[in-house]
């Protein structure tokens, strides 16, 4: 039971907890009785071994199990009685020596979620984000689709930049056959590509080219002479964006395809607009509610961001330099999470199994992987799906806030 609660700070509390001797003894006796029923001790019938044998053989193990269970049980009772929400593991400040038939008194400190006074999220006003689609945007998507569907076909013509060529070449006594490369791309200097441009099929020629030191190839840092034979030239064939192109995409005509492209662009822009309005709501809530941020949560968020920076690579700054730069952003992120959690709890917003299934399916479809692989990814990365569940929870709270917000129309 909770004996005393002390404020170390607005985000850290000290609890003095006592576990009654009778509660501990009752659990130990129950464990010993269970062990007596299950024990198989030579010289005694099953379940009939004397209790002093049971205590000698299993007593310490049962005591340890009981202490682990009952201390957690009374800690949870104490934080409920104190009406606090821990955000970190408790730290035992004073150790105790356990003795049978005596109570346990312990002192723990724990970081807690701060209380936010006068939580107000009613009548938040946000600006409308206009959504429109220009013809050029539709054309850009269609052109990209045509690029993706382009095929390469052999041509009886001189090589141009961007062509796909197949060549044999000999360099430094080494022969390489059927080398396929795109003119202008890959681990070759421009000087080498320039030597290919204008050549025709079956033509044999020599290219001299210098390879820079930083080029990712075995030829780096050398000037070499290549004896080359052009074996094949393929050129990209872009389809005309017409009714036939639309039919290849599964539509009846180009008008229907354009309509679908426009719908997709509008849907994407609407999602972006919603996120913009949600960020504005969060910014206003953060500005209007002042509270201290638990140090442990802030450090965890900073570590997470630094981990992402390191995973991306190519950042030469020290962890401390990165920390100083990202600290304001990390603090804002933690404040947002605390506010969303408080609002979600107050409004009774929870995440159902169906919500989780839908989110996993959406991620799978966007990433072109199976739902099972999505779950494996989160389990491998975070050890559980709790992080994903928290993300779904925050999305639901943000949608709730957006539905309650007053949208200010633009001129």
Can you put this structure into words, describing what you see?
- The structure is a single chain.
- By secondary structure, the chain is of the alpha+beta class.
- Helices cover 50% and strands 19% of the residues.
- The chain has helices at 21-38, 51-82, 135-149, 190-196, 243-248, 254-288, 295-312, 319-346, 353-367, 371-382, 386-404, and strands at 2-9, 12-19, 91-94, 104-111, 125-127, 151-154, 164-171, 174-182, 204-210, 223-237, 406-408.
- The strands form 3 sheets. Strands 6, 7, 8, 9 and 10 form a 5-stranded antiparallel beta sheet that branches. The chain has a 4-stranded antiparallel beta sheet with strand order 1-2-4-3.
- Strand 1 (2-9) and strand 2 form a beta hairpin.
Topology record:
Elements: E1 2-9, E2 12-19, H1 21-38, H2 51-82, E3 91-94, E4 104-111, E5 125-127, H3 135-149, E6 151-154, E7 164-171, E8 174-182, H4 190-196, E9 204-210, E10 223-237, H5 243-248, H6 254-288, H7 295-312, H8 319-346, H9 353-367, H10 371-382, H11 386-404, E11 406-408
Parallel strand pairs: 5-11
Antiparallel strand pairs: 1-2, 2-4, 3-4, 6-10, 7-8, 7-10, 9-10
Helix pairs in contact: 1-2, 3-6, 6-8, 6-11, 7-8, 8-11, 9-10
Query: What is the general shape?
Result: elongated
Low-pLDDT stretches: none
Distance between the termini: 61 Å
SSE ordering? EEHHEEEHEEEHEEHHHHHHHE
* Largest sheet features: 5 strands, antiparallel
- The helix-and-strand class reads alpha+beta
Number of strands: 11
Whole-number mean pLDDT: 92
Q: What value does the Rg take, in angstroms? A: 34 Å
- How much of the polypeptide forms β-strand, as a percent range? 15-25%
Helix coverage percent of residues?
40-55%
What is the helix tally?
A: 11
């Amino acid at each position: 039971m909770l004996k005393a609660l002390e404020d170390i700070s607005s985000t850290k509390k000290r609890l003095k907890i006592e576990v009654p001797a009778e509660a501990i003894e009752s659990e130990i006796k129950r464990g010993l009785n269970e062990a007596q029923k299950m024990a198989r001790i030579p010289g005694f019938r099953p379940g009939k071994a004397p209790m002093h044998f049971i205590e000698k053989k299993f007593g310490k193990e049962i005591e340890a199990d009981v202490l682990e269970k009952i201390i957690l049980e009374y800690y949870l009772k104490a934080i409920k009685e104190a009406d606090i929400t821990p955000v970190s593991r408790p730290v035992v400040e004073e150790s105790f020596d356990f003795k049978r038939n005596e109570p346990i008194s312990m002192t723990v400190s724990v970081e807690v979620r701060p209380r936010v006074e006068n939580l107000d999220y009613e009548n938040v006003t946000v600006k409308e984000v206009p959504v429109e689609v220009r013809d050029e945007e539709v054309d850009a998507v269609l052109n990209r689709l045509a690029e993706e569907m382009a095929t390469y076909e052999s041509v009886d013509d001189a090589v141009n930049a961007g062509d796909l060529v197949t060549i044999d070449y000999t360099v430094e006594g080494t022969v390489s056959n059927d080398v396929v490369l795109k003119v202008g791309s890959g681990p070759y200097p421009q000087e080498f590509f320039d030597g290919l441009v204008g050549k025709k099929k079956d033509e044999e020629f020599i290219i001299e080219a210098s390879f820079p030191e930083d080029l990712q190839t075995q030829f780096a840092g050398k000037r070499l002479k290549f004896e080359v034979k052009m074996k094949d030239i393929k050129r990209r064939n872009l389809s005309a964006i017409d009714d036939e192109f639309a039919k290849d995409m599964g539509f009846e005509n180009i008008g229907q395809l354009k309509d679908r492209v426009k719908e997709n662009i509008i849907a994407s822009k609407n999602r972006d607009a919603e996120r913009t309005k949600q960020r504005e709501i969060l910014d206003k809530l953060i500005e209007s509610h002042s509270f201290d941020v638990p140090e442990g949560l802030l450090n965890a968020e900073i570590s997470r961001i630094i981990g992402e920076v390191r995973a991306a690579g190519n950042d030469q700054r020290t962890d401390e330099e990165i920390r100083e730069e990202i600290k304001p952003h990390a603090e804002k992120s933690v404040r947002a999470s605390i506010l969303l959690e408080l609002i979600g709890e107050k409004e009774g917003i929870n995440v159902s199994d169906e919500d989780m299934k839908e989110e996993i399916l959406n991620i799978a479809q966007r990433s072109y992987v199976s739902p099972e692989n999505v779950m494996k990814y989160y389990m491998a990365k975070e050890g559980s799906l709790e992080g994903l569940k928290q993300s779904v929870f925050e999305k639901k709270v943000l949608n709730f806030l957006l539905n309650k917000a007053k949208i200010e129309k633009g001129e």
